[in-house]
Amino acid sequence: MAADAASQGTPPAGSRSGRRDGLWLLVIWIVLSVIGCLLVGLVWGPHLPPGDQSNTAASQQFDITVLGVIATPVIIGVLLYFGWALAFWRQKPGDETDAAPIHGNTRVQVTWITVTSAIVLGLAVFGTYELIAPAGAGAGQGPQPVFNHGVPPAASDTSWSPNSNNILQVQVIGQQWAWTYRYPQFGGFETTQLVLPVGQPVQFNVTSLDVIHSFWAYQLGVKADANPLVNNIAYTTPEHTGQFVVRCAELCGIWHGAMYDYGDVVSVTDFLNWTHSTAIKLAAVTKLLPPYALTYDPTVLANVGKVNQALGLTSAGGGYYNPADPEQP
Amino acid sequence: MSLPARVTTLVIAFLAVVAGVVYVALHYIGSQPPVVDYTPVASNGQVSVTLMTAPQTTVTDKPDWVTYFIKDPSTGQFVHTTYFEVPADTRINVTILGYDGCTPLRNPLWGHVTGTIGGVENVSIFNGKTYSPATPVSTFDSYANCSVQHTFAIPGLGINVPVASPNTVAENNALCTTSPCVANNASEALAPHSVVTFSFVTPKTGGTFRWQCFIPCGGGYLDGNGGPMGTPGYMMGQMEVQA
To answer: pLDDT of A281-321, one tens digit each?
Structure first.
């Protein structure tokens, strides 16, 4: 009411001038917005999650900062108007007269629609660019990634060298309740440790051996669902050495909350040394792993021994339940 | 109905609902298996812990669930629980009596022994008559051989121990039928089983470490991960480390 009165240049109930209030509101809003945007963009922004340990994380942090800067004037405007109304446009005690009637204001409506449309459309363009530029923004894109700008497909599944066009492939395997990681370009060993080289693009091939999990490398800004019999691809390039947290982001059973570990971004030299020593250490069990594949079906086993066959054990433990079983989940 | 009667009825109904909620919370959600305390029997920086796997749980209302038991050091009896307590910075000498039959691992990686002293476990198989010599093993091939029945894994400490199994068709067809497989019935002790021993050192600081079996052994459940795999006291539990 008072706003309409102010926008129409007519004084609201009471003795204040609507035009003068509008001017004050505009000036205060501009000053506070400039201060707020600077604080959000320059002071808070560099500390916003998920940090800047990878290009995808830094991109997400930038996106959140931009959204914060855009939202700041809106929030300040709403709160300022709210506070101003409470402070100055209160109904006087004993005053029971009606407020001024509301009329449409074409200028206000056009301005409102134009500004909000520009913000929404601008964010749509910005968001689309930010999704494409860092090769999918760190999210799982399914078996056939749409956004792979700047990330050439792997030239070799069996070897890798730094600073080449052959992207490093790491298979992430979810299972109740642990993550394991397979490195096909280093002999195909599988380990519970996730180690990545700094400055080298990485392609995560995420899958599951049982139920649906979600691989969430928090500080790397990578999150991809781990679905059984599905390969879900996500990209990132670690930019700083250090530790990062890996969590499961999909409720997957009683120990879901404990299904986390830590990964490390190390120098390229340290990474190559680690892969060499780990491949040697795990050589005995690597020979027992199934051939590297983008997905695994635990119900289909190779080289099942005679005793297992005689006992009817031709697939891994578990299997899908029989609908006739009285103990269905 | 008079106003006092209606108020009384309402209060009683409300209290009944509250009592029901409290009962469900305490009895089903808040309950946990008993904790077997090994801290009083630790000496010279080490303690011996004995576990048992059984192909069924005849001491509960889930007789077809596979399960672990833990030996209570104060009574010598096996208790149906998976919760135990050990002191910090102590060598834990574990013996697992494996009375279940073999099952191929879902992920062959879990056939690799990790986190134990020496990186091995010692395995002896009782075929119903004699024990084979204890042999150190570091890796099991559960596809080619009938060799693994369950695993004992503490992910937070990097410990993974495949529990060896009786490895012939005849032995797997003569597993014990009443649990626990020793203690109550002498004849049950004659059932084929494995004796797995290994050691590890608890961290210097205390804490709660969950442990689990990595073979989806909940038969009849989707992907084998329901039932005993997801129920405390059967195939997963906690190790409390007292600082």
So the answer is: 999 999 999 999 999 887 778 788 889 888 888 777 655 44
Residue A174 in tokens: 């979810």
Strands of the sheet containing A232-236, edge to edge, are A189-191, A178-183, A168-175, A202-208, A232-236
Q: Are B70 and B84 in contact (CB under 8 A)?
A: yes
A-interface mutation test, from B106, B127, B142, B163, most A Cβ less than 10 A away: B106
User: For residues B203 and B195, is the Cβ–Cβ distance under 8 A?
Assistant: no
DSSP-assigned letters across all residues of A78-119 = HHHHHHHHHHHSPPPTT-----PPP---HHHHHHHHHHHHHH
Looking at the DSSP bridge assignments, the partners of residue A179 are A174
CB contact under 8 A, B111 and A289: no
**Range from A93-107, A203-217, B214-228 that averages highest in pLDDT:** A203-217
Bigger pLDDT: A320 vs B17: B17
Query: Bridge partners of A215?
Result: A224, A248
User: In chain A, what are the domain boundaries?
Assistant: 2-91+101-132, 140-314
DSSP single-letter state for residue A277 = H
- Helix, strand and coil content of chain A, in percent to the nearest 5, comes to 40, 20, 40
Instruction: Decide if B204 touches A, using CB distance below 8 A.
Output: no
Choose the closest CB to B143 out of A173, A284, A301: A301
Q: Which CATH number fits domain A140-314: 3.30.465.10, 3.30.360.10, 2.130.10.10, 2.60.40.420?
A: 2.60.40.420
Give A44-98 pLDDT, tens digit per residue: 999 999 999 999 999 999 999 999 999 999 999 999 999 999 998 888 888 888 8
